[in-house]
Amino acid sequence: MIGDNIKFFRKKAKMTQVELAEKANISRSYLADVERNRYNPSLDTLKAIASALNVPVNSLIGEEDTKNLDRDTKLPELTEKDERDIAKDLQRIMDSLESREGLMYDGEPMDEETRELIHLSLENSMRLAKRIAKKKFTPKKYRK
């Protein structure tokens, strides 16, 4: 989860919550709630935290989870075909979501920031799922 990733990178940077909150221009109590996964930060807040930690936003959203998922054995990398398949599936999913009223809140259409967060979350989830599936279902004799 995002909060766990933020906490991981904060500790890796040897920063306290107070230091990170000051650098990201947010309150320490809000940062603590985000790290406990009580709140989902906005895209702007994620960018500020990522900048303060000197890591890409994707790392906070979940892509880096793949590096820590199984420390003993690394997950296989994605091929260009895998990347194309993910992009095509992701576009199909986003088109499907945007064509329905499912992405509205109280009758209001979804804003661009929320759309971007959903897109990033889906993309990272799909990439992680594809890498786990490749590891799980590739016969040992074909593994590199």
List the helices and strands and how they pair.
Blueprint: H1 2-12, H2 17-24, H3 28-35, H4 43-53, H5 57-61, H6 65-69, H7 80-98, E1 104-105, E2 108-109, H8 112-137
Antiparallel strand pairs: 1-2
Helix pairs in contact: 2-3, 2-4, 7-8
The end-to-end span amounts to 30 Å
The side-by-side strand order for the widest beta sheet comes to: 1-2
Low-confidence stretches: 64-72
Helix-strand category: mainly alpha
Number of strands: 2
The proportion of residues in beta strands is: under 5%
Largest sheet: 2 strands, antiparallel
Tell me the Rg in angstroms: 17 Å
Shape: flat
Q: Percent helix among the residues?
A: 55-70%
The string of secondary-structure elements, in order, is HHHHHHHEEH
Short description:
With 144 residues, this protein is an all-alpha fold.
Description:
This protein is 65% helix and 3% strand. It has eight helices and two strands. The protein has helices at 2-12, 17-24, 28-35, 43-53, 57-61, 65-69, 80-98, 112-137; strands at residues 104-105, 108-109. Helix 2 (17-24) packs across helix 4. It is flat, with a radius of gyration of 17 Å.
List the defining traits of the structure above.
3% strand; mainly alpha; flat; 144 residues; two-stranded antiparallel ribbon; 8 helices
